[in-house]
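Hey all, quick one. A colleague (J.T.) asked me to put the uridine-5'-diphosphate job into the tracker so the inputs and the structure tokens live in one place instead of scattered across chat threads. No bug as far as I know, just bookkeeping. Sequence used:
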Amino acid sequence: MTSTKYKRVLLKLSGASFSGKVGHGIDTDTLTVIATQIKRVIEMKVGIAVVVGGGNIWRGATAEQKGMDRVTADYAGMLATVINALALQDALEKVGVPTRTQSAIGIQQVAELYIRRRAIRHLEKGRAVIFAGGTGNPYMTTDTTAALRAVEIEAEVLLMAKNNVDGIYSADPHRDSNAKKLNKVSHLEALNRRLNVMDTTAFSLCLENNLPIVVFDLQAPRSIERAVLGENIGTIVSSE
Ligand code: UDP
């Protein structure tokens, strides 16, 4: 059997990952590709939990700018992540992966409530676990959820799947032609150089808990499997 670098991982899929090339909503073909990769990760005997974003459907901050109450808008955002979670759950089950969705907000007809010990049990049984509903609190992001859940379930790494960027750069590669891709960077260096890996709440959770982060391009072939195998894909943020 192929030897993997990690035995338990947390994958963060932003809402943009769900819309694929279509650019909005949910693209089922894209989800099938992602689900097939997750299946192979489980076949490698690696526990994988997924935190899903919701930005393809709704963003609280954007709705606030248009005049909506922020807390209500954020709850709508959390519900958007539940929609994505159900779509991913369906895609996973279609390719034969037993899956459980746990939500941070009560929605018992469609998902289990988030219970850490139960989530770990599902992983031990070889099920994929999807975390929906963000942290369950407004003013938070699903990046923060990903860092939090990763630490809670004792994942060895946080896999940050990106769209249209293949790692962390010294500057914004879309704006600065001198921007260089970094293969490896420490948490402190990323903080001091303001490398913008994720929002500050999410990043400080990773820093304080010494959680490695791999930032990689989801569109690259077999990207999730390769990240799990520890191949040199994207950028690793690690204090090792
Ligand atoms: N959200 C929230 N609390 C959380 C996670 C998410 O209020 O703990 C809301 C927030 O409004 C956010 C939306 O859900 O804009 C979608 O999440 P996010 O923007 O993180 O999704 P992504 O950028 O990953 O697609």
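Adding what we noticed when we looked at it: The chain has a mean pLDDT of 96. The CA atoms of residues 168 and 235 lie 6 Å apart.
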